[in-house]
Specification:
The chain has 98 residues and is mainly α. The protein has one helix and no strands. Helix content is 76%, strand content 0%. It is rod-shaped. The N and C termini lie far apart (149 Å). The relative contact order is 0.04.
């Protein structure tokens, strides 16, 4: 009976030890990954801000073009202005006063 209790305790210890060991290995890998990513963050942050600045500049240019096009259309500068209305000219066959 004593051997069965010892075997059960060893089995429980083995299961608990395997779980703790796996958790420790996972935590160690996570910590190493964290340190690697943390050291690369400043460069990634600069790259992200540069991309955001590029997109913002393009949006500003597009907005200015849209405002300019709307102002141009509102002013009617693209349309030809109508000259004076043509007046009727008498035809040669019609002579007034006869």
């Amino acid at each position: 009976m004593e051997q069965a209790v010892i075997a059960a305790l060893l089995l429980v210890g083995l299961v608990i030890g395997a779980g703790v060991g796996a958790s420790y290995a996972r935590a160690k890998r996570g910590w190493k990954d964290y340190r690697t990513v943390r050291s690369s963050v400043p460069g990634a942050r600069r790259t992200a801000w540069a991309a955001i600045r590029g997109v913002a500049a393009k949006l500003v240019v597009i907005a200015l073009l849209l405002v300019g096009a709307a102002a141009y259309a509102a002013s009617g500068a693209g349309q030809e202005r109508a000259g004076p209305a043509p007046t009727g000219t008498p035809s040669p066959s019609h002579r007034p006063g006869r």
